[in-house]
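Standup notes, structure subgroup. Blocker cleared on the adenosine-5'-triphosphate input:
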Amino acid sequence: MRTKLHPQSDTDGLLTQIGELSESTDMPVYAVGGFVRDCLLNHPVDEIDFVVIGDGPQFASNACKAMKGHGWVVYKKFGTASFMVDNFRLEFVTARKEIYQADSRNPEVLSTDLAEDLSRRDFTVNTMAMHLDTKHFGLIIDPFKGKKDIKKKLIRTPLDPVQTFSEDPLRIMRAARFASQLQFEIHPDALQAMQMERERLKIVSQERITAELLKILSHPRPSIGLRILQKTQVFEIIFPEISALVGIEQRDTYHHKDVFEHTMKVLDNVAAVSDNLLLRFSALVHDIGKPRVKRFVDDIGWTFHGHEVTGVRMLKPIAQKLKLSNEYQKYSREMTRLHMRPIQLIGEDVTDSAIRRLIVDSGDKLEDLMTLCRADITSGNPNRVKRHLTNFDYVAKRIEEVEEKDRMRAFQSPVRGDEIMKAMEIQPGPYVGIFKRRIEEAILEGIIPNEHDAAFNFLHQIKEDVLSE
Ligand code: ATP
Ligand code: MG
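Run returned:
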């Protein structure tokens, strides 16, 4: 059955132009895939996919000239080309069927008709095409009942799922990613096939796997996609340190029982308040050291002493294996290293100096660290969470007070090196550093305020002491 689609009005003009060009060059072109899906879902789009029955790059090149496009990119080998108009990227592919070899995901590409092309797409929700010619403009071609699956919120493969995932195992990651992005369920047969074919992910490049993983993290509830990767044992292949968190029991007042469950909750909590992908990734890995340091202590239960240090150590090879940037590595290690610190301040009679040490140690990451730590308070018992959060609010308030008092973020001695040398009548050398550190310590300990004059007077008080050492 054909349904008429009402394309989003801001893309209407573009689609009409492509349709006219298609008619004048006698080359059938359809909007397809993610664009049609997102229109039906009323989701905003920034990319429009087209399928060309004929030479895709040739058609795209004509269209780019006619529409004064920019940012031209072409992959002749794959029969694809794209360019930008307004803020949309228009992606053209030659209708194709692909013959796969068992040991590679680089297919041999042959041109074909629309029906064959659609059947080669990954999920039914991505198999719909839309007419662009004047007569049928907006009509949807839906041979695999993608529209029905959108209604049912279902990810399903158009052909045999085992074959679909085996041919291109990246689709395993894409299934989990779409489930997360669209908040859809994956059909049980597809789930089973993902699990069966998971080993084949080893032939996919790490960059593409990691890109999908980060996409999962970028959605409002990352746990949806990650639970799927866990359930299908895909994590065992792509990120075994995460599957190692399953079944690691913990018992303490601030956290959920199972470390994997706890991690999912922390990640969703972070995602609810921050789009920062570095922070979301850190939430995923902050407890990654726990399985390795787990010990049972009588009368106390499971303990995880030093898990943050072990986690930091593990993150270097993990980041390298995932081919994450240095920024990811540095940031997530820093967050993991510090993630226990604010929580340890709960309930204590927190001194200014303890707070100052946290401020100085976390530097420009303090705010993100506090976001992570607040998210880290999870429990099955909502009253308990509420009580801990109230206590945590008190820590946050104390930080604000101390910060305000000291303006400490870019902390350094308020008395400079040259001034120290002049006042202390010394030459450049180790004593300058010693004086500076004594001043900084005195400020951190709250002995003197973080002000120039107080520090200058303090310098004179300690002069004899320091120089006679
Ligand atoms: P989004 O743009 O939101 O990531 P999308 O569905 O547009 O989602 P793209 O990666 O842009 O995803 O791909 C465009 C279309 O190409 C898809 O909708 C799908 O029809 C098809 N496609 C992409 N990758 C594959 C694949 N690995 N196997 C089969 N079909 C695919
Ligand atoms: Mg797309």
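Discussed briefly. Residues 448 and 454 are 6 Å apart (CA to CA).
Next: hand off to the docking folks.
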